[in-house]
Write a structure and sequence with these properties.
Blueprint lengths: L1 H7 L2 H9 L3 H7 L4 H8 L1 H10 L6 E10 L5 E10 L5 E10 L12 E6 L2 E5 L4 E5 L4 E4 L11 E13 L4 E12 L9 E10 L4 E4 L1 H6 L4 E2 L5 E3 L2 E7 L5 E7 L5 E4 L12 E7 L2 E7 L12 E7 L8 E8 L5 E6 L3 E5 L4 E6 L5 E7 L6 E6 L16 E2 L1
Antiparallel strand pairs: 1-2, 1-25, 2-3, 4-5, 5-6, 6-7, 7-26, 8-9, 9-10, 10-11, 12-14, 13-14, 14-15, 15-16, 17-18, 18-19, 19-20, 21-22, 22-23, 23-24
């Protein structure tokens, strides 16, 4: 019957209809007929479907949160949420218990990174899990083989995930600081810095020794990573005076930096997060959470870089005062700032109407991460065509 319908409809009409179907429906249609399977599996259709879903209603929220258990270890949960016309968030399927993460003593530095073509990475100090929330496929990546000499300790300072358009491959980046172990020294001296890149297509980790000499001194803000314009972006500082946006180009594997508004300084100033709003690089800077915030610090500024890599194009779009916030998470629909309260609740602030809303989602303080994503049929590359390293959750 399906083949009969296709014969009556032109291929353009079928594609037009399929473009407007969610991934969940398309996964069912794959098995209706050979014609549907071939169409939906084609790389052309997959790419066009990804970039065709642009309406706010096509956006979903992936929320990562942690809960502390009786043995003082952390349990990580992923929640998959969709919005309605009243800007409420509702689960689209059951929460997922992430059992692969190994950093059970501290959840502050767990990172949820993406999306990149619909794929995301969940990372801690040892483990990286790549997954597609739409198809519900995931793949734990091979751990890094590099270790420290005896008497030294490696601290993961920054991680990144993105796509190299030249090699046509996904990459994971890790930046580490090497310290000499000295239990009597509260602030051990940094001895070295390591840059590691994992090429997903060939399942291979490698160190970039030239970057250790090129960029020796900087500090990256935890959980500030964003992939944009072919590069990983982090909030960082090259000295103790001011923040910058540190960029790592995935194709050339070189670093560069972007200047941010002069008012964003470290000393007696705010802290920063990056976001994308209407595909524009956005900087959210907000007061560091303190028991009592002085009046002169009690504001949140949101800046837009209207022309990428042009400092003069920074425009302060919003200023918010009196909003108790632990950390911003993302901007949804272009006007809803999602953030974590100091008690660990998921909150929203409507930038258009100054409304505050509390959602029925909470976690251990400082453990919430959120990403806005669209439906995607993009497949996770396998290590080998003859093995099954991609799993279903």
């Amino acid at each position: 019957m399906a083949d009969g319908i296709i014969k009556k409809l032109s291929e353009d009409v079928v594609i037009f209809i399929f473009f407007r179907l969610p991934v969940k429906s398309l996964m069912r249609f794959k098995f209706v007929s050979k014609s549907f399977f071939t169409l939906i599996q084609s790389s052309t259709f997959i790419n066009l479907h990804l970039y065709n879903t642009t309406a706010p209603g096509d956006e979903y929220i992936l929320l990562k949160r942690c809960f502390i258990q009786e043995n003082n270890q952390y349990k990580t949960i992923l929640s998959f949420l969709a919005g309605d016309d009243d800007d409420y968030l509702n689960p689209i399927f059951q929460d997922l218990d992430v059992t692969h993460l190994t950093s059970t003593r501290n959840c502050d530095h767990d990172q949820l990174i993406g999306p990149c073509h619909g794929l995301m990475a969940l990372m801690d100090t040892q483990t990286t899990i790549l997954f597609n929330p739409s198809t519900r496929n995931y793949r734990p990546l091979r751990p890094s083989p590099f270790s420290c000499p005896q008497g030294f300790h490696r601290c993961i300072q920054a991680v990144g995930f993105g796509f190299d358009t030249v090699s046509n491959d996904y990459k994971v980046v890790r930046i580490s600081i090497i310290y000499k172990v000295d239990y009597d020294d509260e602030y051990p001296e940094e001895r070295d810095r390591k840059f590691e890149v994992y090429d997903l297509g060939i399942d291979y980790w490698r160190e970039l020794d030239n970057l250790s000499r090129e960029l020796t001194t900087f500090c990256v803000t935890h959980c500030s990573q964003m992939f944009y314009k072919g590069a990983c972006h982090w909030i960082a500082s090259l000295d103790i005076d001011a923040y910058i946006i540190l960029c790592f180009d995935m194709s050339s594997e070189t670093f560069r930096s972007l200047k941010i508004p002069e008012s964003c300084h470290i000393i007696n100033g705010p802290t920063c997060r990056l976001a994308l709003v209407h595909d524009t690089l956005t900087l959210i800077y907000y007061p560091y959470p303190e028991p009592e915030i002085p009046v002169e610090k009690d504001f949140i500024n949101i800046w837009f870089m209207n022309e990428y890599n042009v400092y003069e194009s920074w425009i302060r779009k919003y200023t918010i005062r009196g909003l108790l916030i632990d950390s911003p998470l993302t901007v949804w629909k272009g006007y809803l700032l999602l953030y974590q309260s100091r008690s660990g609740c998921l909150m929203s602030y409507n930038l258009n109407y100054n409304d505050v809303r509390e959602f029925n989602f909470h976690g251990y303080p400082k453990s919430l991460r959120a990403i806005v994503y669209k439906d995607s049929l993009i497949s996770i590359p396998r290590e080998s065509e003859h093995t099954k390293q991609v799993y279903k959750f």
